[in-house]
Amino acid sequence: MKITAIYIRVSTEAQREEGYSIEAQTEALTAYCTAKGWKTYELYIDGGYSGSSLERPAIQRLIHDVKNSRIERVLVYKLDRLSRSQKDTLYLIEDILNPHEVDFISLNESMDTGSPMGRLMLGILSAFAQLERENIRERTRMGMAERVKAGYWMGGGKIPYGYDYDAEQGILIPNGDADTVARMYRWYLQGYSPAEIAELTGFRYDRQITQILKRITNTGKIPFRGRIYPGRHKAIISEEIYTKTLLEMERRSGSNWNMEGNLLTGLVYCGHCGAKMRYQKWGQRGHKLVCYSRQGSKSYLVKDPDCPQEHIWADEVEDAVVEDMFYFPASYQHRSRKQSDTENMERTLEAERLKAEKRLSRLYRLYADAENAEDDALQTEIRRVQEECKKIREKQQWEKEQRLLSRENTEKIEKIGNLREIWPQMTAAERRRLLHQVIRRITITDENVQIDYDIL
């Protein structure tokens, strides 16, 4: 004996709407079956599923039972409970129900596909259901665009590596992986390949590293529909580092780039206009360093078309840089701050913080016990001590950062401490990588070379 299939669907949004709950639909549809004398019926319920697709367990079970000739008719409370897609609705009626001689009945629209008028109404109402779905989608997209323009994250979807999504604030929050993302940029600009960075960070594929490095979200911005908007979330890296990384990717993608190549590539800047300088083949002798403003091949790198900086032989600059680096460790040790001085300062600040917080605690108790809660002098003193505590904590944070920076600088100095002896044995790639680790910038003004070390 064939059955009447009662199909019930509620979406997450519709569950709270009166008349659309599972219970309300069940009560109305079973009562209709009783009135019609259909005693054998079965419930097919999809709770919390959208009507935009047929990827729903109950509707799939219903389709299976129709194909196996178990069903005589399908009964729904309203047409859009079956589907909000016109294409899917017509597919279910024309390709599933009709070929198996299964009638379709919608209680709310008084529709019965057993009649010609019912089939006509089905086509019309399906079109309206599709229109409503598209209107909802458009409103959602418009709302999302306004959120992004205001600096909020789109919500949902894939959260960028290095961030978590705070649904309450509607923004991205840097997580424990943010430091790893920052190191990726630093390593890449020091000459490491994406494959090497993947190995260092435990990623499986180098293309994952490339995707992270290209992600402008890391600079505090949000890409949306081909445009970039300022985000409210905290940046992991600066725009300068991001731009340098993209330029380095572009340079490496060129056919002439390799890790065994030019020693100072990416480090040299013009002292006159501030543009980057590049290696350029110059006859049989070798290469010259050329200001991009004068070379002009990439207009976005030009700072001053009338820049007076002359071309300079690259090997002479390289020799000057390497020789300066040989002597740098001795001069750094002479002027660097001792680790013991930093530790003593941190202990002093911690004692000052505890003392100030005890004083503030006493002031709070005095304020709580005061007969006159509007005592201006007491409130002024509380604010003064609060500000004092804040400044001490800021100093502590600064000292902590200096200690970590000093430790990093010490590691760099150790690398170049005996550089003169090991330099001849190093490969070109090792030399270039080391320079990118310890040098921030090389500025050439006429024939003068200024080296800014990435060591404070």
UniProtKB/TrEMBL annotation:
Organism, as annotated: Hominifimenecus microfluidus
Coiled-coil positions: 353-395
DNA-binding is among the record's keywords: yes
Annotated GO biological process: DNA integration
Catalytic residue positions: 11
GO MF, any single term: DNA binding
Secretion signal, residue range per the UniProt entry: none
Matching InterPro entries: DNA_bind_recomb_sf (IPR038109), Recombinase_CS (IPR006118), Resolv_N (IPR006119), Resolvase-like_N_sf (IPR036162), SSR_resolvase (IPR050639), Zn_ribbon_recom_dom (IPR025827)
Entry-linked PANTHER family: DNA RECOMBINASE-RELATED, DNA-INVERTASE FROM LAMBDOID PROPHAGE
Entry's transmembrane regions: none
Highest taxon listed in the record's lineage: Bacteria
Domain (Resolvase/invertase-type recombinase catalytic) ranges: 3-151
UniProtKB keywords: Coiled coil, DNA integration, DNA recombination, DNA-binding
UniProt key word Coiled coil: yes
Protein's recorded name: Recombinase family protein
